[in-house]
Design brief:
The protein is an all-alpha fold. It contains 14 helices and no strands. It has one domain: Tetracycline Repressor, domain 2 (Orthogonal Bundle). Helix 2 packs across helix 3 and helix 10 runs antiparallel to helix 11.
Length: 295
Amino acid sequence: MNPAGPLTAARALVELVRAPAALTVLGDTLAGAAASGRPPAPGRTVRLAAASTCLYWAGMALNDYADRHEDAEERPHRPVPSGRISPRAALGTAAALTGAGLTAAASAGRDTLAVAVPLAATVWAYDLALKHTPYGPATMAAARGLDVLMGAGARRARHACAPAALLAGHTYAITAVSRRETLGAGAALPAGALAATGAVALLAAALTPRATGRARRAASTALLGGYALAAGSAQLTATVRPDPTRLKRAVGAGIHAMIPLQAALTARGGSARAAFSLLAAYPLARALSRKVSPT
């Protein structure tokens, strides 16, 4: 048996779902749980991470299924247009991962599943109907916000609205840029994303409760600074020269910057140890992005 066959198929699947980029969603539910006051529970944390990861991967596979004709012209190297994965297999992968994500969410409790179901519906609506409409960035932002709320659960979701809104706002900005990453854009687009990054960082700092301990506030502030630097430097470069290469880098940097933002929001919610554990995923995500593009 030729080992190249299975290895090639595995590589194509990894590219289809942007496997390493799942590191950028693990902190969503941590931030939501911390904001809601839920005590850390390893079993629930693992189930939530599995649910977020599977639904994220499902969205990536569904994205490539839905964009297969466009990608044949703009991104022919992707698994579907290159013929390494069939459209039917991509759609089946998305469906299977959605089922796995909902199962993982259900295992964490009914109130978790109550958020996971609309999250999954939002993912499918985005990729199959809304992505190329004016509502695309808002739909993607809603999916990210729901992922944060899933960490809190339906009964405590109101307590996690602030981190959900902040991560949704960041997502909106990078999604708007991603729509032009293969074509180029005017400077106003990455400049708007840069302004959004600054606004998210400032709002997150302002929303930190005054009763928060000094050490926790310092940790959250430092992490927010890291977030602003991680996303903002690439956005500034793209503003100066908004060609496809720099826009793509700004999108990739924005995706990875989710991690320090999630860590800052998790620390703000009272889980500083979890926040700094989460931060360890940042260099790993960046390193793996050189092997598999997150966009």
